[in-house]
Design brief:
This protein has about 325 residues and is of the alpha/beta class. It has eleven helices and twelve strands.
Length: about 325
Amino acid sequence: MERRTIGAATLEVGAIGLGCMPMSWAYSGSRQRGDESLRTVHRALDLGATLLDTADMYGPFTNELLVGRVLKERRDEAFVSTKVGLLVGDQHIVANGRPSYVKRACDASLRRLQTDVIDLYQLHRADPEVPVEETWGAMAELVRAGKVRALGLCAMGVRGARRSGARLYDATIRQLERVQQVFPVSAVEAELSVWSTEALDVLLPWCAARGVGFLAAMPLGNGFLTGTLTPGEGFERDDLRARHPRFTAEMMAANQPIVAGLRRVARRHGEDVTPAQVALAWVLAQGRQVVPVPGAKRERWVTENAGAPAVRLTPDDLRELAGLPVAQGSWD
């Protein structure tokens, strides 16, 4: 697989990563299978999808344990990204950015992952009760201690906090500017896909100008852009899409022209090319520092996703995809 670098530290990864969250959390618990998930992670590494993206809150904790079982055998082949800063309670999630907690959480993640170093340690959310510089300073100490190689920041969950009239990532940019004064940011993880392009306005250019890597979360639109979901089919209660405003039967039907556009482009590139591969190829085309991290819990999807770098979109393809209808469904 094509290789890409993340940040000024030139951390090298496969052009397509693997989001491990669906294996343990947030998506249809009845369909989660530990043995199958292990095979999926192994398959990703076999194909060169070396970036494994997890977090201590996924499960909680069980996703890191799962990834750790693979790392015990194949640590040298993997690039491990995990996250800190969120605690999962009963029906709620809270931020914790206290330096003492960050250090304890890192040690716990290292134990679960069965490794002595985390390649990329990301701040999942800033704690509103703790200056972000203090949290980031504690994370920087972990780099100096040899427990972490590089630091990243997640710009996820910002939609609900958006103020009227403000650009989506304005607050994230201000936060990045603050932590950059403490210790270099190597990567930013944020949503980017054909139907969610807001990061292109200011966040991705900010990263590009500073040599900061960009991990594209949800590049397949939580599965919608694969064209495999049926409007009105419904989701299990523990599936995040059951409460997602773009996944009502009405909105899924209304947004089918987006999938149809992906299919049209796919057909021009060959019978075996899929809408998902075109959607990932579009993300890859947004910059050499961009690494899409699609979530998957089946070997077949990892195999399909790994074929995306071979799909070379033409200028006409990119113009057609840029002209697709704006996705419908309120996020706020």
